[in-house]
Amino acid sequence: MKKSFDFYFDFASPYGYLASRKVGALAAATGRDVNWRPFLIGAVYKAHGGALLAHPLKSDYVFKDMFRRAKIEGVEGMQRPANFPASSVPPSRLAYWIERQDPDKMGAFVKAAYKAIWIDGCDTADPNAALDAAESLGFDRDDALAGAGDQAVKDRLREVTETALERGVFGSPFILIDDEPFWGGDRFADIEALYG
What are 129-159's pLDDT values in tens digits? Predict the structure, then answer.
């Protein structure tokens, strides 16, 4: 049985982006492969109350902290995406279509889509940003567009989001290792100490 390492994230999450850059190495250090699990954080807020960055002090802090974290981690050019916060449905659905086509490319797609959003400043809700990321990995743009609209792909995103809620996922990034929860990219050292 394959050891679990479930990486839950929302493409609208700056901390999810930063974590996505190093989660593969962390999983390898624990002897596991990453299960990429894009989900919709808005469903969590809807189910449990609250809203993304609803408090103005939190909103101001998150962006200061995000840029600080990026600098510490050597990430240049990180910026607030256009129309932030916006729906992350397009890249999330496309990630699950890619998982069906070529599971080995899902991680590369996640990184390419995240870069388009958090480095290039694309709108998370713009399907073209996600399609550009898929096309850069060799997928046909028209096939990807049709695939993202497939009912089975839509159902997959809904199911993963519902499973995230059932498993207690409440933020992005969120890692579950054998059902042990770790919230945030600042818990990577803890994971490596416990599982490495």
Answer: 999 999 999 999 999 999 999 999 999 999 9
In a domain, residue 87? The reply is yes
* Residue 63 CB-half CA count within 13 A: 13
- Strand partners for 174: 8, 183
CB 101 within 8 A of CB 139: yes
3-state secondary structure 61-88: HHHHHHHHHHHHCCCCCCCCCCCCCCCC
Query: How many angstroms separate the CA atoms of 149 and 165, rounded?
Result: 23
Question: Residue 53: what are its φ and ψ, rounded to 5°?
Answer: 55, 35
Q: Which residues are catalytic?
A: 13
Is residue 1 a part of any domain in this protein? Answer: no
Domain range for 80: 6-195
Q: How many domains does the chain have?
A: 1
C-alpha angle 69-179-26 in degrees, rounded to nearest 5:
40
Handedness of CA 9, 54, 181, 187 (dihedral sign): positive
Dump pLDDT digits (tens) for 21-59: 999 999 999 999 999 999 999 888 888 766 665 666 677
Q: What is the CATH number of the domain that holds 66?
A: 3.40.30.10
CA 87 to chain centre: 12
Residues 38 and 91: beta-carbon distance below 8 Å: yes
